[in-house]
């Protein structure tokens, strides 16, 4: 089985357990989801810094993660908030949140005790044990500088960003921990978004001169980062020598997976308003960008789309990793089936009509019905809260969607999977994890400017 490291960002960090398969001939039951937020004791609310100036970073956050920070066998929760930046000064300090699992369906806020309040203008979070000490660490992406928090193992975290050599500048969206050189140490890919600061803010307005959030087409792309793990708690910036920085992008999402079955982890990077990147790993030394030749750079009409959420899995069970990328409304989401020759065909099937008017962010392949194959969960929400003034078909808040894998076809099961799928939200981040240890995966969703 190939190891897949999912998108960990604005779209959240994901930790998976392996579900048990049903015995042949077992009757299929309907699986539903229930909103347990109120009963959980989680009272935190995301602040998106909404302003009349319509700064683009306001539309993006926030990320979320399930991870076991204290090694007690129960999934805890981390939530990323906005904070002080060059365009936003909150009236009172804003904090990220760490919630410790109480083992009874409830959580306790331990943010301050753990030293994880943050304070930067947060985007996403990637969780992994980068130093191999047995405790999961956190890398927080921000508009501003990113932060690496090392888990001390005693319930607290320390900021080791500079010491570890993973400091960045500008606007980062997602991060992916993966072993690109097969030395058994986790390296770090960090997606960069556009060049942005308050002086570059573009005013976009309708015919009545009402301002709305501009699309990223108005801004220049930036180079992403690749940090190699040195094995001593530090990293080396190999962005240029690896070939990653040669291709500036506007990335919201990335996923690491061995897409050509050569034993080396590759990277698929979704870009907004410009071609997606497919970086093929050349023996742990460099990456070759082959998105155009592979058929994943553009839409079937030959146009760049607004890629946001991504994931990879072998959804059809042929031994080759496939890809999924969510875009903005009218662009359709893409299910890229691996043709086993470094090309992909776009086969969204029933997913296409269901998502035509959606904008997808957090998404994840996972086996929600425990039948042995990966299904698909989508978190949606339009980035512009004024989109309904310009069109009657697209909404700002959008419903969740879930698709059951029936072999090579995904069927929309949203209408029968619980009342939560009838609600409309400003969805952004998503994480999966069995937080109540009952043997099936649950879903954590973060919302822009709202409670999770």
Could you explain the architecture of this structure?
The protein is mainly β and 452 residues long. It has helices at residues 37-40, 111-114, 161-164, 291-294, 351-355, and strands spanning 64-67, 76-79, 97-101, 107-109, 121-128, 137-143, 147-151, 157-159, 172-178, 187-192, 204-205, 211-212, 225-229, 235-237, 251-257, 266-271, 277-282, 286-289, 310-313, 322-325, 334-338, 344-346, 360-366, 375-380, 401-405, 410-412, 427-433, 442-447. A four-stranded antiparallel sheet has the order 1-2-3-4. β25 and β26 (410-412) form a beta hairpin. The protein is globular.
Q: How does the helix and strand content classify structurally?
A: mainly beta
- How far the N terminus sits from the C terminus, by CA atoms, comes to 33 Å
State which percent range the strand residues make up.
Answer: 25-35%
Q: How much is the average pLDDT? A: 93
Q: How many extended strands?
A: 28
Q: Specify the biggest β-sheet.
A: 4 strands, antiparallel
Runs in which pLDDT lies below 50 for 5 or more consecutive residues are 1-25
The quaternary organization reads as single chain
Based on Cα principal axes, name the global outline: globular
Tag the structure with descriptive keywords.
452 residues; disordered N terminus; 5 helices; 30% strand; mainly beta; globular
Helices and strands in order, then pairings?
Elements: H1 37-40, E1 64-67, E2 76-79, E3 97-101, E4 107-109, H2 111-114, E5 121-128, E6 137-143, E7 147-151, E8 157-159, H3 161-164, E9 172-178, E10 187-192, E11 204-205, E12 211-212, E13 225-229, E14 235-237, E15 251-257, E16 266-271, E17 277-282, E18 286-289, H4 291-294, E19 310-313, E20 322-325, E21 334-338, E22 344-346, H5 351-355, E23 360-366, E24 375-380, E25 401-405, E26 410-412, E27 427-433, E28 442-447
Antiparallel strand pairs: 1-2, 2-3, 3-4, 5-6, 6-7, 7-8, 9-10, 10-13, 11-12, 13-14, 15-16, 16-17, 17-18, 19-20, 20-21, 21-22, 23-24, 24-25, 25-26, 27-28
């Amino acid at each position: 089985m190939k190891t897949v490291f999912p998108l960990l960002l604005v779209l959240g960090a994901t930790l998976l357990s392996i579900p048990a398969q049903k015995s042949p001939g077992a009757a299929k039951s309907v699986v539903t989801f229930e909103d347990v937020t109120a009963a959980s004791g989680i009272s935190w609310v995301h602040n998106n810094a909404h302003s009349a100036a319509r700064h683009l970073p306001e539309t993006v956050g926030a990320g979320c993660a399930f991870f076991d920070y204290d090694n007690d066998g129960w999934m805890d929760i981390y939530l990323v908030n906005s904070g002080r930046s060059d365009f936003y000064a909150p009236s009172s300090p804003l904090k990220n949140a760490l919630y410790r699992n109480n083992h009874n369906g409830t959580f306790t806020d331990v943010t301050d005790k753990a030293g994880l309040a943050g304070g930067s203008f947060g985007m996403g979070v990637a969780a992994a044990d980068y130093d191999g000490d047995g405790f999961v660490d956190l890398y927080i992406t921000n508009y501003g500088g990113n932060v690496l928090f090392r888990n001390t193992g005693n319930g607290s975290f320390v900021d080791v960003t500079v010491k570890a050599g993973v400091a960045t500048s500008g606007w980062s969206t997602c991060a992916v921990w993966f072993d690109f050189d097969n030395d058994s140490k986790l390296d770090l890919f960090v997606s960069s978004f556009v060049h942005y600061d308050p002086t570059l803010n573009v005013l976009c307005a309708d015919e009545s001169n009402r301002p709305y959030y501009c699309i990223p087409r108005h801004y220049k792309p930036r180079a992403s980062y690749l940090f190699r793990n040195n094995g001593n708690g530090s990293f080396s910036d190999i962005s240029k020598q690896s070939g990653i920085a040669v291709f500036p992008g506007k990335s919201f999402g990335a996923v690491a997976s061995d897409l050509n079955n050569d034993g080396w982890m590759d990277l698929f990077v979704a870009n907004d308003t410009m071609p997606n990147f497919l970086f093929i790993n050349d023996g742990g030394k460099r990456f070759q960008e082959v998105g155009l030749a592979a058929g994943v750079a553009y839409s079937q009409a030959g146009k760049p789309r607004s890629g946001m959420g991504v994931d990879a899995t072998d959804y059809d069970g042929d031994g080759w990793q496939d890809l999924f990328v969510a875009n903005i409304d009218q662009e359709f989401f893409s299910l890229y089936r691996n043709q086993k020759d470094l090309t992909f065909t776009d086969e969204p099937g029933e997913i296409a009509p269901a998502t035509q008017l959606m904008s997808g962010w957090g998404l994840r392949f996972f086996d929600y019905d425990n039948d042995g194959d990966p299904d698909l969960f989508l978190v949606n929400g339009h980035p512009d809260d004024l989109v309904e003034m310009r069109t009657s078909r697209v909404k700002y808040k959008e419903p969740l969607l879930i698709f059951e894998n029936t072999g090579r076809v995904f069927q929309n099961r949203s209408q029968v999977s619980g009342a939560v799928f009838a609600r409309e939200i400003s969805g952004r981040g998503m994480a999966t994890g069995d937080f109540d240890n009952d043997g099936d995966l649950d879903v954590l969703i973060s919302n822009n400017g709202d409670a999770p």
